[in-house]
Amino acid sequence: MGADHTRPAPPTPPGVRRLLVAVVVPLFALTVIAALVLWPRQDREPVGGADVPRYHGTVTRVVTEPCPPTPEAPEGAGGPCGTATVAAEQGPDAGRQVETPLPAGPGAPRVEVGDKIVLVELIDPADPSVKSYNIAEHQRGTPLIWLLVLFAAAIVAFGRWRGLAALGGLAASFAILLGFVLPGIGGGQPPLLVAIVGAALIMFVVLYLTHGITAQTSVAVLGTLGSLVVTGVLGLLATSATHLTGFGSEDATTLSMFQGDVDLHGLLLAGIIIGSLGVLDDVTVTQAATVTELAHANPGLSRRQLYRAATRVGRAHIASTVNTIVLAYAGASLPLLLLLVADSRPVSQILTSEFLAQEIVRSAVATLGLIAAVPLTTALAAIVTTAGRRAPGPEPASPVPPPPRPPTGRDDALEALGGGKSTEATW
């Protein structure tokens, strides 16, 4: 998250540094204390039944055949039908050839000889000694590992040490999400509070790790934290005004069936907070860096001039980022958007449906929080950058007269000829 927008910032006056420490350190301590209070307890039973055994294997033979007729497909359409022979690499039948039916139905994997697949072992409840295998999906571990290696290598090659720090920040973000935010919400804690505390933890770790412990980074931290609070308040007001319940997607409905105590309305707000964080920190870091660079390039700029100039940069940044937010939400919900396009209801009813209203609220609230981040961070950066600057001294009362001009070769020549020094020389 974020990017390196500037060279090292000029040194900050000691008084300004002490003030930033006095503000940032208590906020960080408060965030850590809140995280400890909300930390998920390991006393919740796992949801769902027993896990089905899954083993790796390689397809060695595929035999297709016509599908038998059914009441839904009298001509035997559908499929594919047939069997696949798989060399099991794990489990009780490791090293043996096992036969499985070809996967069929919507979304079923299409297998060919040589494919690396995942087998699931099914036990007959009536006779536990009878078991069979089905193909669940393809193995994706190796391609994903190579893609992640390429991803990390590209970041480090381009960003060098800063790229390595960015990878560390990304790992910390996932650790906080998987270790605190998701278990905390799943454990019944208030989703909005957990999301704000988790986002604040991610912000502190990622920004300081990626951009260093500087006054400029502290300004970005304060701007991001303030914008997150604004986003949370706006989200709460918007979801209440539109009467959103959080049941706008099939995933939310499924979650409510397995974990009925999860607050889906709060979960919607938590998603808005977490989704806004990645864009917010980029904007706040950019604004803090812009003010610093402008002050470094022209030390004569006043606080008001710095604010106005950096705000113009922020407007251009916001104009492109708003489109990014809307397209990100639209891309994540593309299948459901296609279903809505095929809907026969009037457009007004489609736009006010629970699902689409939820996406509109997400985009609008995230954008409003983003807009609030620009003036907030820019004003903080202008104050910090100009703090401790010496006021210009008074102008001299009268210009200092120039020193007398030394004798020139013309004066010496006139004296040698007996004419004395020139009148110009005496002046």
Summarize the structure.
This protein is an alpha+beta fold and 427 residues long. The protein has a five-stranded antiparallel beta sheet with strand order 3-2-1-4-5, with no helix packed on it. A hairpin with an 8-residue loop joins strand 2 and strand 3.
How would you describe the overall organization of this protein?
- With 427 residues, this protein is an alpha+beta fold.
- It has twelve helices and five strands.
- The chain is elongated and about 85 Å long.
- Pfam families: YibE_F.
Defining traits:
alpha+beta, five-stranded antiparallel sheet, 59% helix, elongated, YibE_F, membrane
Beta percentage is 5-15%
Helix tally equals 12
* Average pLDDT, all residues: 80
Q: For the terminal residues, how far apart are their CA atoms? A: 70 Å
Q: What does the main sheet amount to?
A: 5 strands, antiparallel
Order of helices and strands: HEEEEEHHHHHHHHHHH
DSSP E strands, number: 5
Q: How much helical structure, as a percent, in the residues? A: 55-70%
So what's the overall shape?
elongated
Task: Please give the structural blueprint.
Layout: H1 14-38, E1 54-65, E2 81-88, E3 97-101, E4 116-123, E5 131-138, H2 141-186, H3 191-211, H4 215-241, H5 250-258, H6 264-297, H7 303-332, H8 334-341, H9 347-351, H10 354-386, H11 409-416, H12 423-426
Antiparallel strand pairs: 1-2, 1-4, 2-3, 4-5
Helix pairs in contact: 1-3, 1-4, 2-3, 3-4, 3-6, 4-6, 4-10, 6-7, 6-10, 7-10
Transmembrane segments: 20-39, 141-158, 164-185, 192-213, 219-238, 318-340, 360-384
Keywords: Membrane, Transmembrane, Transmembrane helix
Region (Disordered): 389-427
